[in-house]
Amino acid sequence: MSELSISQRLVIGALVDRIVFGEEDVFSSRDAAELHRLLPATGIAKFSFEGTFSGPASQGGFAAGVGDVQLDGEKQVRVKAGGGREVRAGQWRLSCNRRCIQIVQVMGDDGNEGRACLLRFHRDGRPRDLMGRVTRALHIPWTPISVAFGTWAYWKAPVTH
Known about the structure:
Radius of gyration: 20 Å
Shape: elongated
Helix content: 10-25%
Number of domains: 2
Number of helices: 2
Largest sheet: 7 strands, mixed
Structural class: alpha+beta
Order of helices and strands: HEHEEEEEEEE
Number of strands: 9
């Protein structure tokens, strides 16, 4: 598999922008078909884990002219495991196989302000639909633990212009 050129990545990014940010409830079949044609098959992970752990953090040291200093605050650690190979194009991370393209916005967190969607295709290659990621949270009673997980919900239908 050859690397994508800068111009191919720009075209892929523009196609994804039109599909995701275009019409509210439909997307162009032609854009989806062209995106599928341009993307190399990377495979899509069946399972991946992405999490953020936070807790108190303390740092100490010596500052010239001040002496000993102590900084207290909050520390966040991001962990990502699983997942497959991805293609970066503009603000998007894309994974592709014969039947679907997984699209994740790089600029934000998937579960919060970021977007993630799944563009699905029929066996004959025609676009089927666009599913949006919906984040659900499960809080474990009597503990400070919450588990958030993503699932897919119908978002847009393809149209032929």
